[in-house]
Amino acid sequence: MANTKEEFKQLIEDVQSQDWYRNPIGFGIARIDRGQLDSSKVLQATFPIINWNENFGSAAVLLNALKIAGENVDTKGTELVCNISDVFLEECVKAFSPYISEAKGEDHKNVQVISTLASLPIDSGFTADDYKAVFIFEDENAQSVETSYLKLYALSTGKAAIRSLNLNGIFGQLHNVAWTGSTPIELDWLRANEIALKLSGKYPTIDMVDKFPRFLSHVIPADNTRILETSKVRMGAQLAAGTTVMPGAAYINFNAGTEGSVMVEGRISSSAVVGAGSDVGGGASILGVLSGTDGVPVSIGENTLLGANSCTGTAIGDACILDAGVTILPGTKITLSEKAVAAIAEANPEKEIKTLMRGMDFLGVNGVHFRQNSVNGQIIAMRSTREIKLNADLH
Amino acid sequence: MANTKEEFKQLIEDVQSQDWYRNPIGFGIARIDRGQLDSSKVLQATFPIINWNENFGSAAVLLNALKIAGENVDTKGTELVCNISDVFLEECVKAFSPYISEAKGEDHKNVQVISTLASLPIDSGFTADDYKAVFIFEDENAQSVETSYLKLYALSTGKAAIRSLNLNGIFGQLHNVAWTGSTPIELDWLRANEIALKLSGKYPTIDMVDKFPRFLSHVIPADNTRILETSKVRMGAQLAAGTTVMPGAAYINFNAGTEGSVMVEGRISSSAVVGAGSDVGGGASILGVLSGTDGVPVSIGENTLLGANSCTGTAIGDACILDAGVTILPGTKITLSEKAVAAIAEANPEKEIKTLMRGMDFLGVNGVHFRQNSVNGQIIAMRSTREIKLNADLH
Amino acid sequence: MANTKEEFKQLIEDVQSQDWYRNPIGFGIARIDRGQLDSSKVLQATFPIINWNENFGSAAVLLNALKIAGENVDTKGTELVCNISDVFLEECVKAFSPYISEAKGEDHKNVQVISTLASLPIDSGFTADDYKAVFIFEDENAQSVETSYLKLYALSTGKAAIRSLNLNGIFGQLHNVAWTGSTPIELDWLRANEIALKLSGKYPTIDMVDKFPRFLSHVIPADNTRILETSKVRMGAQLAAGTTVMPGAAYINFNAGTEGSVMVEGRISSSAVVGAGSDVGGGASILGVLSGTDGVPVSIGENTLLGANSCTGTAIGDACILDAGVTILPGTKITLSEKAVAAIAEANPEKEIKTLMRGMDFLGVNGVHFRQNSVNGQIIAMRSTREIKLNADLH
């Protein structure tokens, strides 16, 4: 029991100094949805708050409480998923007691989670069995639904950078299920009950069938972020504040997204990233590593416009314009006039600019306007009219 | 109190002749949704019926009743939003009494609104505080959420023409909120309650995050109009009867839409208008004034086909065809054969047709087929095979 | 009454040998949704199970029971829709009695439907009037909502091949209605109640307005099929197991779909079919017979890639690649080098390959890579790098 913050600090140090203890990369407590037919199947994990390379004191409290509660707290593996119990909650409450009264609003979110769990009404329909304490110690292949979700949360809350996590194995862990709103339903349960549900008028409205949930079912975006249709952003995507996602042809896959205020009316495939101030026009396609690129994840720079129905399978720099309807793949031959070579070279003194380049040669080249000459069909590049902003962090 | 229609007419004349009185451009009574945390914030206004340059008798009744009820009825401003009260409702009922018995179906909708409000059951959960009487006297920048909605309703009900209203300031008035179905939720409320909602399994399904609601949450389309997915049409869009909006890549933004039966499988950006009988093919993009046009709102004529994945940033006339995949921007150079010049000139005797034109030169030119020559990549124009229909209203 | 399976068999033979009897092509029992204003209008028919060229024993039981129950069982017409009654259910139960105890899981689904109907609780809110027995005897124009749905089910469950059914008249039979979730609402009912619903905060969230429901409201896809947004697949579409439909610009219309595992990020128009292992890239458009094709329904072969924002209005063979952004219409002139002619001819010994071909000439030609030369704008074809798989069923 920690009666004071000083005692709390001491408790943490005690726990952290023990042999078995190890700081997790990420952790949190999740409510889980189980299969309707096979209750051992975890269909979804909902985290009210996640921790990522932070709040190690809370991690120590949770791991210690699990140990006291008799859980097998093996921190040697890459991850750990434990059941919670009344004993666990009591131990956490004891440890967190100096903080409980001030745990509100933005403060001490982990303490709020414990307090809320400890005070859930009896008739809430949930039991301790519906919650899990989830820890990732090493960024290896996820071995559970719970840690798969924890990684997706790390990406979608912006706590881990796009492309920074090992996401191998996630597709294997997650179950393909029907979703009614944010609730997952086993397809087999639907099959087993189809006749009764349909005849009684109780067949649920199915909004999608997928392994991943939607971003908005788990993440609250920033005040100036807009997502005009929930299906357009998959859980695991990352949207910087100020991003707008329109409902036409837009889609942002998991492990992809924006690094600043971006207007998204096109597709940002998995592993693609778009810089601040850029515009992904209506129906524009940024290809993923598996479809049309040369295997290098595509980055789009800052203040760049991808015109409507344009397509890019290669990196595009800052302050560029890709005209509506133009496609640039890694191998696309692009012709530059001498004047264009000079102007682009002036803006990119460290790059080699030539009169004939391939799409892939434009990696890191800023201020380029890609067009198709409408008189002779040639794909050309010239200096864009956009100013290349100096990045204050770099200059 | 008006006991007869004659007395009603007299009452209206009395009110209209008073110094303070002024006919509004638009008015209506709205139910409002307030912020869950900040109840002074109006998140949405729902109008069962709006009036636009019409029904001035009802306007006089409402304004007079507000005055009697003690509201500050200042008609000197550009707009007016007033609270309603029992006194207000009683005064309205008294004035409308000769019409109450015949107010049903399509008749006397404003009277129906008053009757319905006056008879709402005590346990409906709403109070007079949840309703507002809303008036616009001049089409200036909206200064409230309620008048912003009234303008969007004027557009979406077809009572005001697309591009005819001053919509400046609407983005500033509307709050960016989460929507579950048609109900707006403050993002801050979600944040304040995230832990409890998620742990208790009561986190709402969020369908979108936006300042604008969806068209179908407020407007009932014509019997032969189809909208295959609600997210595809923003409130403030206008769809003429017979329009079909498909769920692939379509989107119709506010202050944009169709003037007749149109098949929409692509994007109609804000301020763009498509004429009757035309077809916006799958993924076709009609650009808005801020992206790729020369600042002139784009109009598409009647009986014109924009092919799949085509893109236009400039006006296209009647009976035109833009081939699938072809992009016409204002500056696009388009080559015409002598034969094409002659045929198009014959169909457009008042226009100057040349062997090399820019996209913007085709403003008002009918019967043009825009293609890309697949042998030499040239963008060309020829006479389309479509007949140019004489507009019966004009000829 | 059939006490044994032997007696059941005898009963069926007796019924089938009677003059009036005729085996139906398809049949099933549907729960129907009626109009809120006009209850004679059937807005939707929901089948827990359909039969298509199968289970004629059950058909005989149902038709015989309808006859005993006094229904006008006219099997001379192309279709039959009958009311059900307690007498009908009792007769079915009597006939099916040897199978009732083993009717569970995947076995004896028609018997399960009868058992479930016979045991629906009194307070379920439904009466016999809410169910119909539906039969199609000839594949002629549908003459009812119920048989229109039965045909859509035959397609979407994969029991009838895409393009194999006569779907004429379906648009005429189905009513254009508003849908809240999977529930259809008459537009006129919304109009009649708009004022009361809006003022009382009970206006329903409308998800779409269409004649057709969505695929996922009626059909449970295979375990490895994913549909990331329900609006993207219309009822009447057919998705082979392993198909994935992404939420960006995808759409699959009725009487169209996939014949194997296909990634769908673009549009598959009505009557278009995509072969196993192919990929319809982001925003790619496969045109329907009414828009841009020469009237021949478009088939895409196996193991073929349609790149992002590509468009095809003509058939494409196996192992082909259509580059991102390239459009091939039936009349598109496509240039081949001598080397390309030789390589494609080698892979397609039975086809005539030339140095200049039209899009439509590639019908049945495999292993073609369609590109636009970015130096001179020419649309070219070369041998794709994809191996043409021998179809085991054919070789």
TrEMBL record, chains A, B, C:
<keyword id="KW-0808">Transferase</keyword>
<dbReference type="InterPro" id="IPR038361">
    <property type="entry name" value="THDPS_M_sf"/>
</dbReference>
<protein>
    <submittedName>
        <fullName>2,3,4,5-tetrahydropyridine-2,6-carboxylate N-succinyltransferase</fullName>
    </submittedName>
</protein>
<dbReference type="InterPro" id="IPR032784">
    <property type="entry name" value="THDPS_M"/>
</dbReference>
<dbReference type="InterPro" id="IPR001451">
    <property type="entry name" value="Hexapep"/>
</dbReference>
<dbReference type="InterPro" id="IPR026586">
    <property type="entry name" value="Type2_DapD"/>
</dbReference>
<keyword id="KW-0028">Amino-acid biosynthesis</keyword>
<keyword id="KW-0963">Cytoplasm</keyword>
<dbReference type="GO" id="GO:0008666">
    <property type="term" value="F:2,3,4,5-tetrahydropyridine-2,6-dicarboxylate N-succinyltransferase activity"/>
</dbReference>
<keyword id="KW-0457">Lysine biosynthesis</keyword>
<dbReference type="GO" id="GO:0019877">
    <property type="term" value="P:diaminopimelate biosynthetic process"/>
</dbReference>
<dbReference type="Pfam" id="PF14602">
    <property type="entry name" value="Hexapep_2"/>
</dbReference>
<dbReference type="GO" id="GO:0009089">
    <property type="term" value="P:lysine biosynthetic process via diaminopimelate"/>
</dbReference>
<feature type="domain" description="2,3,4,5-tetrahydropyridine-2,6-dicarboxylate N-succinyltransferase middle">
    <location>
        <begin position="174"/>
        <end position="214"/>
    </location>
</feature>
<keyword id="KW-0012">Acyltransferase</keyword>
<keyword id="KW-0220">Diaminopimelate biosynthesis</keyword>
<dbReference type="Pfam" id="PF14790">
    <property type="entry name" value="THDPS_N"/>
</dbReference>
<dbReference type="Pfam" id="PF14789">
    <property type="entry name" value="THDPS_M"/>
</dbReference>
<dbReference type="InterPro" id="IPR011004">
    <property type="entry name" value="Trimer_LpxA-like_sf"/>
</dbReference>
